[in-house]
């Protein structure tokens, strides 16, 4: 028998959903406890019933953002693979897509926050490092065998960097062209599926 989540668990989830979007949208420094609680439709006073500190919220929100992103990537990859794409091609086409370019708030937390991650409190840095490791593992699983040592880390770095640079250029023709160039380069170098 399934047990329905408690009211406190549902509220905690709502706070995490709000904070996960907010950190990707505004960065770690752009996130205040009062703003998160207000956006979640809650009072500031209830925060400490859920989190010991702002850093505890940030660490958990970063983990939550990573789980959300991984779920979205998995669904998109499954759809692209059902249409005939290799696992690697599915990953690259989804990650370096126009929708990911414009979807900072719901996209990859690593791409949205990488430059800020090293300057956070230890718990937040640990959560950030886990997000990076998870992204590299996802790339590793998608690569056709045999992949050389370090390939997954290099590819993940190019994916994140390409998305960050495209976002710096803007959600426009120039940003989309940068993503397209990186898609083509990565697929030409690493995809084992027949060329379209």
Task: Describe the 3D structure.
- α7 crosses α8 (151-169).
- By secondary structure, the chain is mostly helical.
- It has 9 helices and no strands.
- The mean pLDDT is 93.
- 68% of the residues lie in helices and 0% in strands.
- The longest helix is centred in the middle third of the chain and has 29 residues, at 54-82.
Tell me what portion of residues adopts beta-strand conformation.
Answer: under 5%
Mean pLDDT: 93
The termini sit apart by 49 Å
Give the ordered list of helices and strands: HHHHHHHHH
Task: Considering the chains and any ligands shown, give keywords for the structure.
single chain, 196 residues, mainly alpha, 9 helices, globular
Short recap of the structure:
Helices cover 68% and strands 0% of the residues. The chain has helices at residues 7-26, 33-39, 54-82, 87-95, 98-102, 109-113, 122-142, 151-169, 173-190. The longest helix is centred in the middle third of the chain and has 29 residues, at 54-82.
């Amino acid at each position: 028998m399934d047990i329905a989540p408690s009211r406190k668990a549902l509220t905690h989830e709502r706070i995490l959903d709000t904070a996960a979007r907010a950190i990707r949208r505004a960065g770690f420094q752009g996130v205040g406890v009062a703003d998160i609680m207000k956006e979640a439709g809650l009072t500031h006073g209830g925060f400490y019933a859920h989190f010991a500190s702002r850093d505890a919220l940030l660490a958990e929100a970063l983990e939550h953002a990573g789980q959300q992103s991984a779920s979205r990537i998995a669904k998109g990859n499954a759809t692209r693979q059902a249409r005939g794409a290799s696992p690697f091609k599915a990953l690259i086409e989804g990650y370096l897509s126009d929708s990911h370019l414009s979807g900072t708030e719901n996209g990859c937390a690593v791409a949205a926050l990488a430059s800020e991650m090293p300057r956070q409190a230890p718990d937040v840095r640990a959560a950030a490092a886990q997000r990076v490791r998870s992204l590299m593992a996802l790339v590793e699983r998608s690569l056709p065998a045999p992949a050389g040592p370090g390939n997954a880390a290099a590819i993940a770095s190019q994916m994140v960097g390409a998305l960050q640079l495209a976002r710096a250029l803007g959600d426009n023709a120039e940003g989309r062209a940068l993503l397209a160039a990186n898609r083509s380069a990565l697929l030409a170098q690493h995809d084992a599926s027949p060329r379209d």
